[in-house]
Predict the structure.
Amino acid sequence: MRLLNAKSQKLEYFQSSETPPYVILSHTWGEEEVSFQDISGSETLSHLKGYQKISRCCQQAVTDGYEYVWIDTCCIDKTSSAELSEAINSMFQWYAEADMCYAYLSDVKASADSIVKDSELAKSRWFTRGWTLQELIAPSNVIFYESKWLEIGTKISLRNTLTKITSISSQILDGGSCDSCSVACRMSWASKRVTTRLEDEAYCLMGIFGVNMPLLYGEGEKAFLRLQEEIMKRSDDHSLFAWTAENMQLYGLLAGSPRDFSESGNIERLKDEPMSLPYSITNKGVQITLQLVKSSSVPLVSTKHATKKVSAFECRKIGKYFTPIPAIIGLNMIVALLNCQMSDTPGQPIAIVLVETENRKDYLRTHLHFHLISPLHFSESGKAKVETIFIKAQYTHSYSLTTARRSNSSSHDWCKIRTPPPLAYDFFILEMYPVHVWAYRESVLHLALNPRESIGRPAVLLFESSGYRFAVLLQGKNRRFYADIVSCRGGEVARDVSTRFQKELEPRDCVSQRLSQEKVVWVSIRNCPGGHVAVISIHSEESPTELKLDKMSLSDKSTDLNRT
């Protein structure tokens, strides 16, 4: 590695076995930084804004009794891709082996009495950058300096403040191994940090996970996928898959960014976990062995939205709990149990909801993860089955669950689905077929009303109530929407029901289906004059509250319909 002589400010090269004691600088880049070419030339450097930082770092090192310093701006020849790749892959180790690290916070200023308040320290840009994360964790000794090189404190003396700012535990700041924290926890440290280059979101984390990989600037988000694949090669920690995303859509098993782990800081390995079987990336996706349970059998609580009010189509009631399992698909859903847990709910495994793809040979996942309420109930009852499956590592066709695709309809004809409010209903939606006509968040179904269009398969909403399954069939024809309700056979899914009923539905305003001696489900439909819009009510009483169409909605088909 190259080191800068603190007295002569000339670069010197050392073999790894001959490296002398050195100080290393941690900082954020600014304007007119001194490069390798600048420091190697014969011209003076005092006119460059970044030179003052190098000069003061060298002065401080000499004062502390050190002859050499390492500074990333000028000790790496960034015009050489090979040297840059070697440096980035070695950087965590170089910071760890330094006798001392100076963390220079150029945007922090001490008060008149040379004191920096914790609140001012927390505002520093240094705590928002991706590369400074490993520069905080790797060195044993870190001294923080403000803009005029007045000492603020050390990593040890500021331990509690640093933990509050970064969410990194004091054990890690005291020199504990990163491997003592789950993969998800380590990812969460970087979830609120940014880098100038998109690829550096992954490259700056290599040392924290103990992996190495070649640099391919220009690959974009693929860098973070490659990082996760490298982590999988050395770890069987399922918390790598315990992430959440803001957009309600289908995803591959692997996250798209460290930001997806912002809610995963308190995830840890299960204390008494069964031995995890190896898993790997294949040309069919991630081949992994997991405990799988049908989604209709699992009491779950979202780790992100457990206390948030959600609509009837976003959750189902299980005792006092609500399960935010989105009704997003016309295919099978299963719940996969991971070998990790939330630290505040020990013994309750994290679970992710998987979706069987169209070819029924592999799976995608939804945007949330959950924690299981009573795991023993499933293992002892035999509901959980251990299976080896393929889950797509990345899903590139990013289908949004909040906006329906209308490729099969020349006009924007639609009907609004209504169910009782969450606290009142005793049935919940399992799935929808076909998915492309269903706008999940708005509970809107887009059906073609072209009178010349032949009647084909009906759209199907599949429900479950106290162990009974029923399906609501919906069709649009001649500027009217038709509905029917049928019982399901055995393990039928929504697609099977749609295949079974390939005929025109009768134009009835209200239909019912008896599920048991005590329970009858009703479906009412109200078409607006002139077609295009309807409200469909699914309820458990013979005379539901009257359905009314908001007149304003008739002039704007995207406007919500009100039920009063």
The first strand starts at residue 2 and ends at 5.
